[in-house]
Amino acid sequence: REITQSSAKFTLLHCIDVLRGLDSKKIRAARHNAVAGFGKLKGATKSTVERLMRRLVTDGVLQERIEVGFHGAVVSYLHTGRKCEAFLRGGVKVVLDVEVAQQRKEVVAEDKRSAAVD
């Protein structure tokens, strides 16, 4: 919310980078490395965080506003959505299926046989 309610405009991809804790010049310049959510999803893949953010947009927690930028380029900026406050209070739940890779654990059996010494 800190990023989307500022007077500056930021894209969904910028917010994904902030959540993943990316150390970039743009993030440092905007002081987004100091917001509460910086790096909160550091262990998640970029595609997982993007799916989460897209889900928040679809569910009305976040909103994208499309603008025509320089040279006619279309840019989509992120803003809080109509359900943002309810979401932050816990009144709206967002469900996202995420595949979790199982870690293979190699079990090493220690040989505990005693050697006979004569």
What's the helical proportion of residues?
A: 25-40%
Q: Count of helical segments?
A: 4
**Strand order, sheet with most strands:** 1-2
For the terminal residues, how far apart are their CA atoms? Answer: 75 Å
What is the mean pLDDT?
83
The ordered string of helix (H) and strand (E) elements is HHHEEH
Strand content: 5-15%
Please tell me what the overall shape is: globular
Structural class: alpha+beta
Count of β-strands: 2
Describe what this molecule looks like in 3D.
This protein is of the alpha+beta class. Helix content is 26%, strand content 12%. The protein contains four helices and two strands. A two-stranded antiparallel sheet has the order 1-2. Strand 1 (62-68) and strand 2 (74-80) form a beta hairpin. Helix 1 packs across helix 3 (46-58). The longest helix has 13 residues, at 46-58. The chain starts with 11 loop residues before the first helix and ends in a 30-residue tail after the last helix. The relative contact order is 0.16.
In short:
This protein is an alpha+beta fold and 118 residues long.
List the helices and strands and how they pair.
Layout lengths: L11 H8 L5 H5 L16 H13 L3 E7 L5 E7 L3 H5 L30
Antiparallel strand pairs: 1-2
Helix pairs in contact: 1-3
